[in-house]
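Need a sequence for this fold. Nothing fancy.
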């Protein structure tokens, strides 16, 4: 358990969001992948922001109310996201989870996005290791 690293539980099959992406496309990606947020990257895969379900809900409510059209991710994203290293211990990460903390962590290597770790993935791994439960990783 102590030797588990973020790279052992990260997902790398979900494409990150790029600046200029319409929010409706971000929402479709979040819903399709059953995930609560995604990193926003530049053309070199450097993480420059993060967009969450909550950000999308608020922005879509405001834009629909004011009839402003489809907002872009640039207008809504959080610009100083927390990122983690692929070598970070899952135990250390799990101990830092809590109210007000991110539910999705971008994993970077030399500043470039290589995957994401979700609370769901950590929970599934802890359940499997601690109790021998086999849980499918969908997030």
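Here you go.
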């Amino acid at each position: 358990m102590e030797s588990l690293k973020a790279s052992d539980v990260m997902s790398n099959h979900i494409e990150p969001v790029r600046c200029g992406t319409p929010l409706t496309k971000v929402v479709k990606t979040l819903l399709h992948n059953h995930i609560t947020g995604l990193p926003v990257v530049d053309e070199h895969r450097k993480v420059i922001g993060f967009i969450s379900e909550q950000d999308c809900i608020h922005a879509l409510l405001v834009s629909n109310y004011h009839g402003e059209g489809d907002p872009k991710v640039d207008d809504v994203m959080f610009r100083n996201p927390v990122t983690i290293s692929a070598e970070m211990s899952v135990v250390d990460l799990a101990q830092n989870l809590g109210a007000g903390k991110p539910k999705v962590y971008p994993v970077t290597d030399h500043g470039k996005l290589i995957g994401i770790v979700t609370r769901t993935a950590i929970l599934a791994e802890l359940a499997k290791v601690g109790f021998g439960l086999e849980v499918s990783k969908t997030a």
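For context: The two ends are 21 Å apart (CA to CA).
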